[in-house]
Amino acid sequence: MFGEDGLLNELLVERFNYCVYVVLLLIGLYAMIAKNNLIKKLIGMSIFQTAIILFYVSIGVKEGGTIPIYVAEHDPHGHHAEHQAHPEEANATEETEENATTATTLHEEDHGHHGPRSLTDEETSDYANPLPHVLMLTAIVVGVATLGVALALTQRIYRAYGTIEEDAVLAAILAEDASTVIPDVLATKPKRTSSKSRKAKKA
Amino acid sequence: MSENSIALIFVFPLFGAVLCALVGRKSRNLCHPIAVASLAGALWGGIETLRRVIASETNEVSYYFGGWNADAYPRGVGIEFRADYLGALIMLVVVGVAFLVAIYSKLPVAEETPEKEGPFYTLFLLQVTGLAGICLTGDAFNLYVLIEVAALTGYGLIAMGSARAAAATFNYVILGTIGASFYLLGVGYVYMKTGTLNMVGIQEVITANGLADSAAMQVAFVFICLGVLIKMAFFPFHAWLPNAYFHAPTATSSLLAPLVTKVMIYVMIRMTLTVFGVDFSFENTLWTEVIPWLVVIAIVCAATMALAQRDVKKMLTYLIVAEVGYMVGGIWVYNYYGFIGSIFHIISDACMTLCLFLGVGIILRKRRTTHFDGLRGLFRKMPFTMGGFFVGGFSIIGLPPTCGFFSKWYLITGGMLAERWEYMVALMFSTMVMVVLFFRLIERIHLAVTESGENIGHGHGDLALPESETFFDEAHWTMLVPLLLSASVVLVIGIFNQDIVNLIQDFLEPFDLPKGTGR
Amino acid sequence: MVAEPTVVNDVRPLIAVLTPMVAVVAIAWSGEKRKNLREIFTLLAGLVQASVVLSLTPLVLAGNVVEFHVWQIFTNVPMLLRVDGFGLIFAAVASVLWIATSLYAIGYMRGLHEHAQTRFYSFFGVSLCATMGVAFSANLLTIYFFYEMLSVSTYPLVTHMQDKEARKGGRTYLSYLLFTSLCLLLPALSWCYVWLDNGQGAMDFLAGNSMSEQFSDTTQIVLLLLFTFGFAKAGLMPFHSWLPNAMVAPTPVSALLHAVAVVKVGVFCVIRVYSDIFGIEVLQALDGEQIMVWIACATIIISSLIALSQDNLKRRLAFSTIGQLGYVVLGATLATKQGTAGAVVHIAMHACGKITLFFCAGAILVASGKKYVSELRGLGRKMPFTMGAFLIGSLSVIGLPPLGGFVSKWYLVLGALERDYVWVVVVLLVSSLLNVFYLLPVAVRAFFRNENDNEEGEGGLKEAPWQCVVPLSCTALGCFGLFFFSDVLLSLAGL
After folding, report:
1. At residue C488, what are phi and psi to the nearest 5 degrees?
2. Is A2 a domain residue?
3. Which of B88, B237, C43, C47, CA to CA, is 20 to 30 A from B18?
4. DSSP C45-72
5. Is B472 helix (H, G, I), strand (E, B) or coil?
6. 3-state secondary structure of C80
7. B355-394 residue pLDDT tens
8. N- to C-terminal Cα separation, chain A
């Protein structure tokens, strides 16, 4: 269990990033579901989303990998040849690029003057994979937007019910339901449609 | 123009949305025409796309935004938008439904969310962009972004209603985010193992590298399915849906109820067939055994809960949950006919749900309530509206020749060929519940009997209503025409279902799905 | 069975089916304000439909079938209308009796000052369209379409009174009919669709039957049960109680729909399944097919016994109808040529007799407001035509010559003897006796039990309006006519 191939070694050393994100994910999930305060729920949501962002970022990382800007003179080869300690386990991206049928993932920066060219595996092996990071820019934007909407909703709920405790909101809703009587439309004459009345006002 | 038809589907609503946002402050009355016009444009683009897909030899049409096309770059470099029969059909449903709702929404929006035409139509058009995008995108991460686009605008649209709507939306935000995040997580694992986000690319890598047994891929599949199930309000995860749609403004629920859950079913079909592949999805997992039973529970529970409702709109929201069960079941009984049923049911369910929600919106506007108590004498007051509403109801029950009958037929056939008897029984059960539900409505609309069963009036169908409630008073044409159009679409799709099913069959043919035993 | 019939393509079946629908539009357009015009449209539609149907007779008698392809439902399963002998008999009965009923309905509805008459006539038209569709369907799916259409379109007719009783009746009506058709029939249909020849035209009535090749004996029995009970309109016990409950409807509805159209659609579908989907030879060879004969016989006897105890005239007639439907199903289950022909002919014979009885019941209600058998004393003197017609109708239903009912019962007996089911003959005799017991007292009481104290109070009682009396006299005469022209029906039924 504690040895080189042991479970603990695998979890804490080789797959450390996964452990971190799973723990964060669960914390977030717990807060979202179990917390009573709406703001705390949103904090949970933020943690939850961040956990996933961390996961993505971590799979794009290569130990010692450099920023993926291809400069012909600055050949990263050789400098970092010795560090591939756990090619299979720790660095899934590596496996990725070997497995992919296409020669490589994208390197848009590269095609500036001489048109697009796929780099060989040799050339790319020491660049960190930029794509997960780029994806996460989008995910962060989405997260911020979600949080913004959710905060606006919380504000609206607070204005309507005077509380941001879920229990209290639910109680208020129940009280509201109990007090509303189904409008006895069939006994009274319904109002004229408001669009017409508003038109009349305008005129 | 025609070769850019896929782009037009997005360009029209997107620019319409921007325009609405700009114009909305000064001249609110312009927003509705802008929305209708841009959706008409999108509808044209959609029809053109389907036409091109049918005309093309491979039965699919690709489009790369920004010119990152597959000829010059390796697959996966640019974000591909790909229309095949499945995607194009569902996209067309999305745009068509949105177009009808846009026409319909003029009065409800002006009355229920006064002075907010600008924001409403902005969000409305963005919502359509997102949903249509989900149907056409060929990129797994792009799909996530579009799901979130649709979700975020959806939150806004729903929360525009009462304070109750805001409270309901909050739950939706939480569950929706969990769902979408699970999907994102799954995509992360997929990318890790395959190194590409292009859907076809992923499938190629899975087969080429034999990733079927990979644990990481299994995890990815589970996360993606779970996320999609939450987003589609599959039974144990349905809690967000009824309240959100019930308290949403009329126009919003008419747009979201027919589309959102259905589009997520589409995502599930896309994931199982195109992305992970049939072998991976259905033969390597325990899910094939478990999900049909979950479906049974889902259908039975949702139908029973629908039975307990005393409000038409609330009842319909539970029906949506039950229908989601139908479609998920159609996928997971894993049979050729089940898939036909599921895909066809996406189309037909969207049409009939639209029909019903449009009808409910009119009832709400006329009677100020959708409670069962407020239904009496409606047929005499609005015969055309109620006629359209009943067509939708018959379709949900599954009476021929409405489209609901045909989709249910294929689902039952699929269940039978896969020898999934429990699924068939659940379908039958929910069919009976639907019969009870809709004839309960029809009774109330048609008969002169009070809730407690007392006769009222002086016999001879005297409804004992104030005169204002019995004389002929049809809905405004902007609301009536979309309703009648959707009702006739329900019938036309039913009658000419063979044409659509042929397209679906052409789509399914290459996947080599089991067709059942030849007993 | 016989040589392949020649197929003639003709649009007339479609015209016959669509005529009522066109009439519905015209009726709805005319509305309550132009009621004469509205009722002229109804009668006109009936005349057009009947003449179109009857104009097909020579073609069919010459051994042709008339087809019209409407649209393609599924691969290999079209929406196909086809007129053959069976269908023609049924269609002719329904459409001719529709004319009589339309006329009768005018008298009845006006006589009782009923509300919502436009709705009534409209949905009547829709029901007739569906009935015609069933009669002319060429495959199981087409028949199912029209069958469901009939269930739904008769609901507003059954609940016409819109009161509490109507709600109860309507609920029972729909829950029985839709439960059986959606939960028993639909699976049976998709079963056949999927596994019979892999859906290659297997639903067609002319395709010849391959049941025994495709299915084991047990499966065939299960299918047979699903079909027989699935078509609950046939009123087979235990799925019969929708019929007495549907009697809350106005009498023209009970007369045409619940003595002729709807219930006969049920038994007609059963006959179709037995003789054209399974096939007589297959059924004869099938072990356990006797179960069906037992069920039919039980229905006949039990319903006759229940009818004895009913005081409400319409309910008594309803239980009598259930018993008579049992005859038709019995004929089909006997799986002989003569039995099947007897069953088909019995549709016509019973229709004519039973509609007379219902017309009379309605006429009594219009003229005197009486609903119960026990109230009918002495009515025969005041309403001689009505009660005379009632007597003739009763005798025809009982099956005495020279009335139509005799012919069909005769062939049922022949069919039973061909399969050596002597006990079936006994059942038929016993049930005829029971018919005598529950039908004749009604007429007898009306004519002979004339108590003086009643006569004084209701001295002013007269016959119902002429629109009521003329149709019922015509149908009563029709019972004689059917006896003398039964050879035409029999040759249509393939004998």
Report:
1. -65, -50
2. no
3. B88
4. HHHHHHHHHHHTHHHHHTTEEEEEEEEE
5. coil
6. strand
7. 999 999 998 888 888 888 778 878 888 888 998 999 999 9
8. 83
Q: Which two tokens stand for residue B324?
A: 């989601």
- Contact between B388 and B474 (Cβ < 8 Å): no
Is residue A123 one of the residues assigned to a domain? yes
Cα distances (Å, whole numbers) of residue C2 to A23, B401, B467, C6: 79, 34, 65, 12
* Domain region containing A66: 7-202
Q: Domain segments of chain C: what residues?
A: 6-282, 289-495
Q: Residue A101: inside a domain, yes or no? A: yes
Sheet with C77-83: strands ordered across: C6-9, C64-74, C77-83
Q: Would strands B60-64 and B80-84 be described as parallel, antiparallel, or unpaired?
A: antiparallel
Residue type, A160: A
Question: How does pLDDT run across C380-435, given as a tens digit for each residue?
Answer: 777 778 888 888 888 888 888 788 888 888 888 888 888 888 888 888 888 888 88
DSSP A67: P
B156: closest CA of chain C, how far (Å): 41
Is B424 within 8 Å of C71 when comparing Cβ atoms?
no
Min Cα distance C44 → chain B (Å) is 26
- List alpha helices for C137-185, DSSP H: 140-158, 164-180
Place of tokens 């606006």: A152
Mutation pick from C24, C76, C164, C222 vs chain B, by most beta carbons of B within 10 Å, is C164
Q: Which residues, other chains included, contact C56 with Cβ-Cβ below 8 Å and sequence gap of 6+?
A: C10, C12, C13, C66, C83, C88
Give residue limits of the domains in chain B.
286-519
Question: How many domains does chain A contain in total?
Answer: 1
Chain B residue closest to C76 (CA)?
Answer: B498
pLDDT band for C61, please (50, 70, 90 cuts). confident
Q: What is the pLDDT of residues B176-232, one digit of tens each?
A: 999 999 999 999 999 888 888 888 888 888 888 888 778 888 889 989 999 999 999
Taking CB atoms and an 8 Å limit, are B400 and C145 in contact across chains? yes
B8 Cβ contact list (under 8 Å, min separation 6): B1, B41, B42, B44, B45, B48
Any residues with CB less than 8 A from the CB of A26 and at least 6 apart, and which?
A: none
Q: With respect to residue A105, please indicate whether it lies within any of the assigned structural domains.
A: yes
Helix (H, G, I), strand (E, B) or coil at C464: coil
Find chains touching chain A: ≥3 CB pairs under 8 Å: B
CA C4 to chain centre: 29
